[in-house]
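Students often ask why inverse folding is considered easier than folding. One informal answer: many sequences map to the same fold, so there is more than one right answer. In these notes we will look at a single instance of the problem. The structure comes first.
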C-alpha cells in the first residue's frame, strides 16, 4: 500500500465531484462508503485501487496495485483540484446561486478515457436500468479482482474486451451497433487513453473521430475523463428541456435551443449543465422518455 495526503486549495465536494465516475450505486468498480470512496481502475502504469478519505481540508489517499503510484499522482486531477473555472461569469441570477451552493462540485479529470467510453457506449439508446445491468454483467464476466483490501472488480482489460465475441455481449443485452463500438473502443484503448494528455477541448474533439462515438457520448466522457468544463451532452433525453427551463423559463426539448441558452457561458457550458444537474432541477415531466441517444447513430 502507498499513501499520500492531498491538501485542498479550496473547498471540494469530493463525493459530488466523483458522482459521474460511479455507474450507479451497484457499480462493481467504484463504491462510496462510510470508510471513503473506493475506485478500481486501469492505467498505462497498471491496475490500481484507490481509497479517498476527506479529512477537513485534506484528502488522505491510499492505493494498492502495480499502478498505485501513478494513481496517487492522478488524485489532484481526479478530484478536480486543477479544474479550470477561469472566465466563468455566472451573471444569470439562478446560475449564480447554483455556483454559490454547488461550486464545490468540480469537473473531474480521471484520465480513464477507454473505461469511460465503454460505460458511456453502453448507455446509448437504452434506459439507465439496462445500461447499469449491462455494465455490471460486463465487469463481472471479464473483470478481475481489484488489488487491495476490497471486493471491487477492475474493469475488463481492453485487450480481452476487444476480442469478445458479439454473441457474448448480445446476451448482456448489448445489440450489434453498441457491441461493435465497445470492441472498437477497446481495440484502440492505447490511442484513446493518450488523449488525456491533450488540452481538454482538443481531446474532446478527437473523440468524435471514433466510429460510433457522437456528441452525446464524447461529452459524457469529456466531463469525467478529460476535465472539459465546456462539454455539452447534446442529444440527451432530458437535459435540453431541463436546462432551457432553468435558464429561460420555457422548457424546450431541442438541442439548438439548449445551445442557444448556454451561449452566454461559452467555455464553461458543461459546468452550467453540471450545476443544474447537481441541484436536481428539472422541467415539468409530461410522460416517459427514451434514454439518451448518440447522434452519430442516427
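Output (designed amino acids):
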Amino acid at each position: 500500500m502507498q499513501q499520500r495526503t492531498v491538501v485542498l486549495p479550496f473547498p471540494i465536494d469530493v463525493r459530488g465531484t466523483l458522482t459521474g465516475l460511479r455507474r450507479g450505486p451497484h457499480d462493481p468498480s467504484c463504491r462510496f462508503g462510510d470508510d471513503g470512496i473506493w475506485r478500481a481502475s486501469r492505467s498505462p502504469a497498471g491496475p490500481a485501487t484507490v481509497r479517498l478519505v476527506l479529512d477537513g481540508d485534506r484528502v488522505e489517499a491510499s492505493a494498492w496495485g502495480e499502478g498505485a503510484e501513478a494513481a496517487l499522482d492522478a488524485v489532484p486531477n481526479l478530484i478536480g483540484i486543477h479544474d479550470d473555472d477561469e472566465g466563468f461569469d455566472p451573471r444569470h441570477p439562478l446560475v449564480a446561486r447554483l455556483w454559490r451552493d454547488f461550486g464545490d462540485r468540480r469537473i473531474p479529470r480521471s484520465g480513464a478515457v477507454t473505461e469511460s467510453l465503454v460505460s458511456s457506449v453502453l448507455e446509448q439508446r437504452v434506459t439507465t436500468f439496462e445500461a447499469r445491468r449491462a455494465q455490471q454483467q460486463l465487469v463481472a464476466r471479464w473483470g478481475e479482482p481489484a488489488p487491495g483490501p476490497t471486493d471491487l472488480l477492475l474493469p475488463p482489460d481492453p485487450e480481452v474486451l476487444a476480442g469478445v465475441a458479439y454473441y457474448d455481449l448480445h446476451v448482456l443485452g448489448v445489440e450489434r451497433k453498441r457491441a461493435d463500438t465497445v470492441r472498437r473502443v477497446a481495440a484502440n484503448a492505447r490511442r484513446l487513453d493518450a488523449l488525456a494528455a491533450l488540452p481538454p477541448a482538443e481531446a474532446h474533439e478527437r473523440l468524435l473521430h471514433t466510429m460510433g462515438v457522437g456528441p452525446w457520448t464524447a461529452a459524457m466522457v469529456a466531463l469525467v475523463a478529460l476535465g472539459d468544463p465546456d462539454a455539452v451532452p447534446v442529444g440527451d433525453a432530458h437535459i435540453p428541456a431541463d436546462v432551457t427551463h432553468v435558464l429561460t423559463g420555457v422548457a424546450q426539448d431541442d438541442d439548438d435551443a439548449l445551445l442557444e441558452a448556454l451561449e452566454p457561458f461559452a467555455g464553461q457550458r458543461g459546468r452550467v449543465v453540471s450545476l443544474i444537474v447537481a441541484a436536481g432541477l428539472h422541467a415539468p415531466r409530461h410522460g416517459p422518455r427514451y434514454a439518451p441517444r448518440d447522434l452519430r447513430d442516427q
